[in-house]
Design goal:
Order of helices and strands of chain A: EEEEEEEEEEE
Radius of gyration of chain B: 13 Å
Structural class of chain B: mainly beta
Number of strands of chain A: 11
Largest interface: A-B, 33 and 28 residues
Helix content of chain A: under 10%
Structural class of chain A: mainly beta
Shape of chain B: globular
Oligomer: heterodimer
Number of helices of chain A: 0
Distance between the termini of chain B: 37 Å
């Protein structure tokens, strides 16, 4: 069966510090991978998606970046965190390319607080 | 620009009664809609979906209704149970989607009172 792991679960970081959130998927190959953010009082915002190793697309301008060094590994990074980066970050993958049949499967999320 | 809107941030319902969560969208080209359920500190989980060629899809206690002319969909939970207390997100998929974009609403927090 397919599973998705995301860590850490919670993180408190000072402004200006770097960030690295990791997501791995098991039980499937060549998944579409996504990073979403849920900020307080807002919906889920797509940050990055990847259809393959080394292929990253960004949906919104920000000081975050993403990388996909392996087929089932997706990393969200920042060189210098801002206060506005605080939020709940979710990694997800889709079973089928369009996501229409089963939608996304989300990880358990990372609560990031920038202080 | 929010293309999918959930205008009720919260909803409280008595156990056993019906919960109705609403969602409006602006793009008439959206052709697939999904509902997700999210507990605190967890990722959203897929609940139910509906294609734009249908106006109703039912799965147990959960039914989603789609009114294309009004660009409106709703999720009905009958009967509501305390375990249904969570945040519910609706999402829309544009046509010819390659999996790179779902449009999510802002969520409605449902509280089912025992």
């Amino acid at each position: 069966s397919q599973t998705i792991h995301q860590w850490p679960a919670t993180l408190v970081q000072p402004v200006g510090s770097p960030l690295s959130l990791e997501c791995t998927v098991e039980g499937t190959s060549n998944p579409n991978l996504y990073w979403y953010r849920q900020a307080a009082g807002r919906g889920l915002q797509l940050l990055f998606y990847s259809v393959g190793i080394g292929q990253i697309s960004s949906e919104v301008p920000q000081n975050l970046s993403a990388s996909r060094p392996q087929d089932r590994q997706f990393i969200l990074s920042s060189k210098k965190l801002l206060l506005s980066d605080s939020g709940f970050y979710l990694c997800a993958w889709s079973v089928d390319p369009t996501g229409a049949n089963y939608g996304y499967t989300f990880g358990s999320g990372t609560r990031l607080t920038v202080v | 620009d929010q293309q999918v809107k959930q205008n009720s941030p919260s909803l409280s319902v008595q156990e056993g009664r019906i919960s109705i969560l609403n969602c409006d969208y602006t793009n008439s080209m959206f052709d697939y809609f999904l509902w997700y359920k999210k507990y605190p500190a967890e990722g959203p989980t897929f609940l139910i979906s509906i294609s734009s060629i249908k106006d109703k899809n039912e799965d147990g206690r959960f039914t989603v209704f789609l009114n294309k002319s009004a660009k409106h969909l709703s999720l009905h939970i009958v009967p509501s149970q305390p375990g249904d207390s969570a945040v519910y997100f609706c999402a829309a998929i544009p046509p010819s989607n390659t999996g790179n974009q779902f449009y999510f609403g802002t969520g409605t927090s449902l509280t089912v009172i025992p």
